[in-house]
Amino acid sequence: MRYFERRKARIEIIPMIDVMLFLLVFFIIVTLQMIPDAGVRMQLPVSSSSQHLPHPKFIVNIQADGTISVKNKVMTPAQLTAMFAADGAPSKTEVTIAADKATAFQNFITVIDAAKKAEVTDIGIAAKPGAGN
Questions:
Q1: Are 80 and 74 in contact (CB under 8 A)?
Q2: 97, exposed or middle or buried, with CB in 10 Å at 0-12, 13-18, 19+?
Q3: What CATH number corresponds to the domain at position 87?
Q4: Would you say residue 6 lies in a domain?
Q5: Cα 31 → chain centroid
Q6: In a domain, 56, yes or no
Q7: What SS3 class is residue 125?
Q8: Among 8, 30, 45, 114, which residue's beta carbon has the most beta carbons within 10 A?
Q9: Mean pLDDT across the stretch 123-132?
Q10: Left (φ > 0), alpha (ψ -120 to 50) or beta: where does 111 sit?
Q11: What pLDDT digit, counting tens, does each position of 80-104 carry?
């Protein structure tokens, strides 16, 4: 009676390794998308009353030459307004403006105007903590 002969159970390790690698790649990709925008290197102005803010949805970088960028994409004020408006709930959108201390104040106002046109109300300003000058 060979039909009822018990065979020793085997644990196949190769499919388990495949599944683990798939999960690892999946979590790495998801984690990379969750990392907030690191921004661009710039000289932020110094403020004696700066506070730590939670991670905003958008960080708008204004370079010394007036270039506006979000997530390493250069944008015009109109594109900025369209991006904020397309967010779904602009009144709940959190925006932080990181302007180089050498940039013209008009560039800063241009970004605020673009956010206000999209009805964004939660606007923060990035500054380095310090004694101030």
A1: no
A2: buried
A3: 3.30.420.270
A4: no
A5: 12
A6: yes
A7: strand
A8: 114
A9: 75
A10: alpha
A11: 989 888 877 777 788 888 888 888 8
Q: Which domain holds residue 117?
A: 46-129
- Residue pLDDT, tens place only, 11-53: 888 888 999 999 999 998 888 776 665 555 666 666 666 666 5
Backbone angles phi, psi at 14, to 5 degrees: -65, -45
Alpha-carbon distances, residue 29 vs 25, 32, 33, 36, 57 (angstroms): 6, 5, 7, 14, 19
Determine the pLDDT at residue 52.
Answer: 63
User: Does residue 88 sit within a domain?
Assistant: yes
Query: 84 with 111: CB under 8 angstroms?
Result: no
DSSP 3-state of 27: helix
